[in-house]
Design a protein that fits this description.
Helix content is 30%, strand content 28%. It has 8 helices and 18 strands. A hairpin with a 3-residue loop joins strand 14 and strand 15.
Length: 347
């Protein structure tokens, strides 16, 4: 087999990989994106993007399925609506988002090859089931089970489990259900989309195995009166085990870098943010790691909370109630749980 080459090869056509590809290609770099699935984008996901993470015009309005300036938060001792004058969070369809981001990357000049699985990395050559590819830079944007992360020998110890069902119908409110007795430091959710809702659960996997979490989700949904029996069950691993983003000419972004929130499991905004930060570091070409300062500050705060709550469950439950109360009374604004608006700029 012949060996092809590109300035930068990106493994994974999710939000991190495609955001990185679009920024690099628009600056004239030769970019190749390899995706093992037949299309870009699909992933088990609630599909929520905090409004504070979006720059103006970052995503076209038609991609936003629903926008909410109110969210219902339910804990064992509280049930209230969190309200703001502007949207707090939007929902998106991951497949539509992936298709749009792929189009943006390809229009900028990137080449996206789907159905291509990376096998191993030999020095500056990526070996795949479709041939060998030589690179100057390699970006692992291939999720929690990243080939690049494994090649670097980075362990994955801190991760959550997300389980979701896409349930048809109209759901009027976005709901967060904090139930420590069922989900530990995690939560169940109802995230409405245009003609359906993502109904699911997220929890730290160190305390709850996937089969037990699935059973508890079904128990909660039945009590809530939500029928998820006919909807397909989809699950994914959500990594928040960050150990660095640059390793010589190898980079990690999104879930591959462990940049999802350990507390909420939110990863779309973090993926886009980190993908663009990696692209900026490659364009600068000074050997410095990507600028992830604002993202890492939130990431570390959420990771500390998860560790505290899971190690001391009896103390952690009042902490979750206190966090909810602080949100309720405006002492803790919703933006505290989000990435701030400043994103790495496009060159």
């Amino acid at each position: 087999m012949s060996t092809s080459s590109a300035h930068t090869i990106i493994i994974g056509a999710g939000p991190a990989g495609l955001a990185c590809a679009a920024m690099l290609a628009s600056s004239g770099r030769e970019v190749l994106v390899l995706e093992r699935l037949p299309c870009a984008g699909p992933k088990p996901c609630a599909g929520g993007i905090p409004n504070g993470a979006l720059e103006p015009d970052l995503l076209p309005p038609e991609l936003l399925e629903r926008s909410f300036n109110r969210q219902r938060i339910i804990t064992p001792h509280q049930n209230f609506l969190l309200h703001k004058n502007q949207p707090i969070i939007h929902t998106v369809n991951r497949e539509k988002l992936g298709a749009w981001m792929r189009q943006q990357a390809e229009e900028a000049g990137a080449v996206v090859l789907t159905g291509t699985r990376g096998r191993r990395i030999n020095d500056r050559v990526l070996v795949t089931d479709q041939g060998d590819f030589r690179f100057k830079y390699l970006v692992g944007a291939d999720g929690s089970n990243s080939l690049v992360r494994r090649h670097l020998g980075l362990p994955l110890e801190l991760a959550g489990i997300g389980i979701t069902h896409q349930v048809p119908g109209h759901f009027p409110e976005m709901e967060w259900h904090i139930k420590p007795a069922l989900f530990g430091s995690g939560y169940a959710w109802i995230f409405p989309h245009r003609d359906s809702a993502s109904v699911g659960v997220y929890a730290f996997r160190g305390r709850l195995r996937s089969h037990l979490l699935r059973d508890r989700l079904h128990q909660w949904a039945e009590q809530r009166g939500v029928d998820i029996g006919g909807a397909r069950t989809r699950a994914s691993l959500v990594s928040f085990d960050y150990r660095g983003a640059r390793f010589g000419n190898l980079f990690l972004a999104g879930d591959a870098a462990g940049l999802a929130s350990g507390l909420t499991g939110e990863g779309i905004a973090a993926a886009i943010y980190s993908g663009r930060a990696v692209a900026s570091a490659i364009l600068d070409d000074h050997g410095q790691p990507p600028d992830l300062g604002t993202l890492l500050a939130r990431h570390a705060r959420h990771r500390r909370l998860v560790r505290f709550i899971t190690r001391l469950p009896r103390t952690g439950r009042p902490v979750l109630e206190t966090l909810a109360l602080a949100l309720r009374w405006g002492v803790l604004p919703p933006e505290t749980l989000e990435i701030v608006k400043k994103q790495p700029s496009r060159r």
